[in-house]
Amino acid sequence: MTTQMKGLEDPMALITQMYPCIYTQVAPQQGEISKPRRRRKKNKGGESGAATAAETAKKRKLSQEQVDLLELNFGNEHKLESERKDRLASELGLDPRQVAVWFQNRRARWKNKKLEEEYSKLKTIHEGVVVEKCRLESEVLKLKDQLREAEKEIQGLTERVDGVSSNSPSSSSVLSMEAVDPPPFLGEFGAQGFEDQDVFYIGQNSYINGMEWMNLYM
DNA sequence: GGTGCAGAGATATTACATCA
DNA sequence: TTGATGTAATATCTCTGCAC
Fold first, then answer.
1. What GO cellular-component annotations does this UniProt entry give (predicted)?
2. Quick one: which of A12, A83, A149, A186 has the fewest CB in 10 Å?
3. A50 touches strand C (CB under 7 A)
4. Nucleic strand C under 7 Å from the C-beta of A211
5. Which residues touch strand B (CB under 7 A)?
6. Are the CB atoms for A185 and A205 separated by under 8 Å?
7. Helix A64-76 and helix A82-92, axial crossing angle in degrees, nearest 10
8. Strand C reaches within 7 A of the A59 CB
């Protein structure tokens, strides 16, 4: 895993959730605490029995041909049955244990590579989602502004209508009940085209200037 | 069904080789 | 010479299958 993993909160948890096939055996289950591993002791002196091969023979790299054949086999199947292990070992002139170790390490490398690839994919998706979220948020703000403006206009119209009906004589036969009804068309928010004209609807599609309307009752 | 054991795989770590 | 990197090897843990 590299430093590119930094920046997301617990990306491993996410990947574990999305790719349980990769993380089945060792990923701690939810609520389970993973035990700390006992640290291995350095073994330079050679008194412990386990590292005899490494002590006697210097560690040497596998030849390119050996690696090629191992890679070929790994490409066919990542797991190594004991029969195949023995056959490969004799083909390569290696110890079966070496073949097993090579496959173990190769699986680990393959898994790391896979995780890094999946991480990059998820990161790209995440970035796209963040951009879309910002776009939607600014759209919400814009729409809220529009709504506020519309409410203001509605309130203005309501106040005008209320003012008119309270000033007019209740017994008047000139102003019909249609005066409180909305105009036949008011544009997108019901008032467009009327706010600057100071006109009132008095029925039968007849519009008169506000001052003229007042003069009728003066 | 519970238990002990062996084998295999996963993972962390060490040790060595190589290269810039 | 030295630090970084790649990789073979080792240590430890976990899981699984099997015999009892």
1. nucleus
2. A83
3. yes
4. no
5. A 23, 25-27, 37, 39-40, 42-44, 54, 58-61, 79-82, 100, 103-105, 107-108, 111
6. no
7. 160
8. yes
Question: What is chain A's pLDDT, residue by residue, as a tens digit (218 residues)?
Answer: 333 333 333 444 444 444 444 333 333 333 333 444 544 444 433 333 333 333 344 567 888 888 888 988 888 888 888 888 888 888 888 888 888 889 988 888 888 888 888 888 888 999 999 999 999 999 999 999 999 999 999 999 998 888 877 765 544 444 444 444 444 333 333 333 333 333 333 333 333 333 333 333 33
CA A58 from chain centre, in angstroms, equals 51
Q: Which residues pair with A199 in a beta bridge?
A: A209
* Amino acid, single-letter form, for residue A55: E
User: What single-letter amino acid sits at A191?
Assistant: A
- Superfamily for A1-19+61-167? Homeodomain-like (1.10.10.60)
CA of A197 to C1' of C1 (A): 91
